[in-house]
Design a protein that fits this description.
Aspartate Aminotransferase, domain 1; seven-stranded mixed sheet; 12 strands; 12 helices; 42% helix; binds pyridoxal-5'-phosphate; alpha/beta; Aspartate Aminotransferase, domain 2
């Protein structure tokens, strides 16, 4: 097996490097611990026990009860399950409120509901990408089935006023779901103090392999699965459990909990050093998002006059990874729907790159990347004037 190339990975909101301790934890369940968790004999019970441990590890990170966690295949599945459950809970409620800056897991599900006759209120955001709680309050109605607002935006890192929104939803008697895929493991979340109905998370943003997620459903909330099948996950998600990935997610959550206490300041320092170095070396750039309320690991930068896709490719040649939009939309290089919703022009949005850091990044890497960007931006601007 060859050693991995020396990539500088600054795209941790797209996915993260798998933690070797996570792989080690899951390996037995890919090899000799292959029992079906529903089987009554010891080999099966061992798998069932491993799932229970993982459920407790996820619950410990979120500060909720283990029984409130349902394992899924992804953040996308969790979000679909929450939205579909909320609308199934009361067929008379045909209205859903969400924002224009959600991930496609929410956007496309709500678009699909609109085609089925549901009314969707799409909340706008201000120039910092922030929603106004007053707009949320005005939007909620007696027939609103769900308010779904992400905890943190994947492109800008903007943190939404989740506690205020939960309170508004509570007062109006409306279910609340948050897509917390980008928030988990980056900021502390204590569900025992929040009174929220649904929360979605995804393993691969947490140094766990891809293809596993979880949905938190408050124990007082009726959950109606959109998928029918076996009685796994306490009748809430049919299909034989992916034991190895569930074990991996549990371990990743345990490690994230430990890491947050130690590494939080480091990641913030790396991000802030990157921003200040870039601002002092590259002329005329702008940081996008709510700079006061932001994930510690994310920065979104506009380089006027630069095609971000071109810069991304040149950085790739230097083995530096970042993003010109969310992973799901990059490729088409359509201007980011998030930046456009913030009132940023198409041209400026197409000149923007996202850099997202993890505890694995170092200051040496950051200084190297800033030097490379400075040279490349100068070169591109020289050729385009
Ligand atoms: C905010 C947000 N929600 C949902 C998802 C989807 O998660 P998954 O890739 O596990 O389906 C992502 C992934 O990029 C995301 O950033």
């Amino acid at each position: 097996m060859s050693l991995p190339p020396s990539v500088i990975y600054l795209d941790n909101n797209a996915t993260t490097q798998t933690d070797p301790a996570v792989v080690e934890a899951m390996l037995p369940y890919l090899t000799f611990r292959y029992g079906n968790p529903s089987s009554p004999y010891a080999l099966g019970k061992e798998s069932a026990r491993a799932i229970q441990v993982a459920r407790e590890q996820v619950a410990a990170l979120l500060k909720c009860e283990a029984g409130e966690i349902i394992f899924t295949s992804s953040g996308t599945e969790s979000t679909n399950a929450a939205i579909m459950s909320a609308i199934a809970a009361d067929p008379d409620r045909k209205h859903v409120v969400t924002t224009r800056v959600e991930h496609s897991a929410t956007l496309k599900t709500c678009e699909m509901l609109a085609k089925r006759g549901y009314e969707i209120t799409w909340l706008g955001v201000n120039s910092q990408g922030q929603v106004n709680p007053e707009d949320v309050e005005k939007a909620l109605r007696s027939d609103t089935a769900l308010l779904s607002v992400m905890w943190a935006n994947n492109e800008t890192g903007t943190l939404f006023p989740i506690k205020d929104l939960i309170e508004i939803a509570r007062q109006k008697g409306v279910y609340f779901h948050t897509d917390a895929v980008q928030a988990i493991g980056k900021i502390p979340i204590a569900l025992d103090t929040l009174g929220i109905q649904f929360l979605s998370l995804s393993g691969h943003k947490l140094h766990c392999p891809k293809g596993v997620g979880a949905l938190y459903v408050n124990k007082k909330t009726r959950f109606i699965p959109f998928m029918t099948g076996g009685s796994q996950e306490n009748n809430r998600r049919g299909g034989t459990e992916n034991v190895a990935l569930i074990v991996a997610l549990g371990k990743a959550c345990e490690l994230a909990r430990e890491r947050m206490e130690i590494e939080d300041e480091k990641i913030l320092h790396i991000r802030n050093t990157f921003e200040s170095s870039l601002l002092s070396s590259v002329f005329d750039i702008k940081i996008n998002g709510d700079l006061q309320n932001r994930l510690p690991n994310t920065t979104n930068v506009t380089f006027p006059g630069i095609d971000s896709e071109a810069l991304l490719m040149l950085l790739d040649e230097k083995q530096i990874c970042c993003s010109a939009g969310s992973a799901c939309t990059s490729g088409s290089h359509a201007a980011s729907h998030v930046l456009k919703a913030m009132g940023i022009s198409d041209a400026q949005a197409r000149a923007s790159l996202r850099f997202s850091f993890s505890h694995l990044n170092t200051e040496t890497e950051i200084q190297h990347v800033v030097e490379q960007i400075t040279v490349l931006v100068k070169k591109i601007r020289k050729h385009t004037v």
